[in-house]
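Sequence in, structure out. Go.
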Amino acid sequence: MIRSNLLIRRIASKYVAHRTTSAAFPAIDALVANHSKPSTANHLFSTTNSITTCRQFSSSPEATELGSILQREINEEEEAAAEYDGHMPPELADLQSQLAANWTILEGIACADSETGSGASVRMFRKEDGSNGAKIGIVFHCQDTEEDVRFDETNIFEDDEEKEGDEEPTQAVRFGVTVSKGGKTVVLQCRSGWDVSVEGVTVRDGDTEIALAALAGGEGMHASLYQGPEFTELAEDLQASFQKYIVKECGVDEDVSAFITMFCDYREQEEYVSWLKTTIDVLD
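Output:
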């Protein structure tokens, strides 16, 4: 994971439709009359109405100020990302290319009647089935992150002042690993940080696609399904066995973990710029 942390720090350091209302066409005779006999009153009304419309759609000082700040943020983000000319950072692109030999990587979650998310949600399908013929998948969202602080027994009494000069901690990412067979799916809730760890195991009906779509749609502790036992209360050897399973059987190794962490950082930055641009289009 040292490589993952170095790459993530390197990447982190650099980076409304117009609607026309159609009035009913006037009668031909009225149209001819209007053109053949122009009215001063109508002209004045038209001019006044035009001025009123312009005033109605002029930006307020508050909207102008907000738009200016949003544009400043856009400029700063695009300048920081200019080095890559709108492309994925080379280190991340190389890792994705390497993983493509064993994984199909798709952005977005397509459901039968809707689509959940955009590039913010990512699905990964292992090309090779598990040893028992099970289908294996991964799903994660670029914002499902938290600060990844590694516990250090030798520095538990270290003052906050001593930490001020330290580098900003990397982000850990929560993701789901699905193992599907016979219309049933086991979902292993995992965390990718200093180490890849399993934090929970649930069982649900449906195949890999259904399970991944549900996870991407925010299914969690509020779902009606039994969420499985408290993972930390399981026998220690059972916890360890689940841990080995996701690495050896599911193929969630250090490279996959590094990709998830790095891609989340990259995609969150891309989504942030898109959010800025959409916001300024609507509000300014």
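Check: Residues 103 and 126 are 5 Å apart (CA to CA). Residues 1-48, 50-55, 112-116 have pLDDT under 50 and may be disordered.
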